[in-house]
Amino acid sequence: MLRGGVRRSVDGYAFFIERRQAGEPRLGMLVTRKHARLATRRNAIKRCIREAFRLERHRLGSLDMLVRPPYNAEPGKAMIERLRVILPKVAS
Questions:
Q1: How large is the average pLDDT for residues 55-69?
Q2: Domain 6-91 carries which CATH code?
């Protein structure tokens, strides 16, 4: 997917997208130690990405999406709201 899909970057987020014929959208996340040293913080970032994806899933269509957040990403409501705006734009 990293090689074959389309790469788009918005506000420091990198999205790797690959269209599929049918089915629900699928999410992958790339959150490493560079993003946060502590596992609890990495997990919080992943939870925010997952929640935004869940809320926007119906608008995305059939695709596989890999999300890599910026290294200075702060997990929280602001991150979820920002991703809710970005995800439909990137998927179209």
A1: 92
A2: 3.30.230.10
